[in-house]
Amino acid sequence: MKNIKTGVVDSKAIGQRIRADIEKNLEIRGKRGYLPGIAIVRVGRDPASEFYFNAKIKRAKEFGIEVIATTLEEDAREKEVLECLKELSNDSTVHGILLESPVPGHLDYKKLVNTIPFQKDIDGATDISLGRLMSGEETLVAATPLAVMEFLGEISLESGSLVSIINRTITVGKPLTMLLLNANYTPVVCHSRTKNLKEICRRSDAIVVAAGRPRFLGPEYVNNNSVVVDVGINSENGKIVGDADFESLKGIVKTITPVPGGVGSITSLIIFKNLLQAQELQEKF
Amino acid sequence: MKNIKTGVVDSKAIGQRIRADIEKNLEIRGKRGYLPGIAIVRVGRDPASEFYFNAKIKRAKEFGIEVIATTLEEDAREKEVLECLKELSNDSTVHGILLESPVPGHLDYKKLVNTIPFQKDIDGATDISLGRLMSGEETLVAATPLAVMEFLGEISLESGSLVSIINRTITVGKPLTMLLLNANYTPVVCHSRTKNLKEICRRSDAIVVAAGRPRFLGPEYVNNNSVVVDVGINSENGKIVGDADFESLKGIVKTITPVPGGVGSITSLIIFKNLLQAQELQEKF
Fold this sequence. Notes:
Two copies of one chain form a homodimer.
Chain A: E1 4-5, E2 8-9, H1 11-31, E3 37-43, H2 47-62, E4 66-72, H3 78-90, E5 96-99, H4 109-113, H5 127-135, H6 143-154, E6 162-166, H7 173-182, E7 186-190, H8 197-202, E8 206-209, E9 227-230, E10 234-236, E11 239-241, H9 246-249, E12 255-256, H10 263-284
């Protein structure tokens, strides 16, 4: 196992490796004259997503990638958003499209996002992307589950291992289940209604926690060989904390990812890895 | 719990209930003058699927449902199959389309099936149907996982229960995982690479076995409270046997479904339940 110090995964090293891969790829594509372009669309100015919206634009610029960032008004009609997305879908200089969520209540996110062709769907949010993922076909997948897979790969989690996921959403738990199966792991998908959650987690080889509750996962959920991947990002008294109780777990589990600086820190990079893959998909399909 | 005698689920009663529901529904629709129509397409005459092809036609006729059954030649070109499927897709008297699998090796089943609109996809086989299922949207789902859910519903398996699935295919394990999550169960998806499969099954509340191996699931996989749903259909010395060792399990588990006469016996009915749902979807979308 590489990059593990005293039971904490060195996510900096993972991030650096992904970043280096992206830069190397961009350099090659740049020389051949076909750098990818990205489009980021938001409707309204949701304050919680403002930070992420700006961070993506900043990072794209750092990579030297062309960005079309569009902010539509809070009261934009469905037709207007659909037209914007269709225009970007037909724009051959745009290789990846992100529609920021949430959208204002009068709009249907799923209907809007489904107008993006799967080859440009770098959030892996369309029905076709999800169906292709389920079928095991080459496709783009949401960044968070891909980031979790990077961590499991980094620590070389053994094939066949039992992996508990505490999350059943369409952005984390469900796509992660498919990725785990494709990688020959054995996923168990847990949620608020799961009976004996502690016991299930304790008997698992790895636990991916995205419960949305600060320091939810305590010592009673783990064993001495547990691998804990913390997807949570919670604000507690002005500090960012994860869904795992890092301080009480780090000495007793085999491995744990920190928050901040763990899964979340590489998720924003994965978007650009997806952008490169999107460009390849557009050459194939 | 209804319809359980000495630990064996009375699948006849489940089948009768589903059949009665379908007949009642057809009667109402018949009176209003809009009975659904079904189209069944096969390419070549795969002997293993000949029986199922004919059985579906026979059953449709029993229900008084209009059937368009098409057999294309073994060497049919892709274009020819696509044209046939498109014609049926555009035919307003056809509400459900089945493309029999397997198709001959020179054809791409997935590409062909994806031309069927999700509203007519009564096998739940298209990428859009799968994506909609994953997203929790109203959609058509493959018959086998739906049949399993009928059994779990019949025995009133408690919400949150741990359900082991021994199968990770796109026709059974993966869609069943999504159905189980939507119904608040906790699925664990097992396969040939799973470590400690026996222990995982023994600790589960229910086991759905579709391992494709006759009498694979023996007493070492169960506990006295296990619910066993057997999806297997194997031919052994001229007899049909399941993937569970029925004789050695029926006395020690809480409930078990028989083979033949269990899940398989209602799967062919579910196709017609799907056809009714397909007709409703076509009114909505």
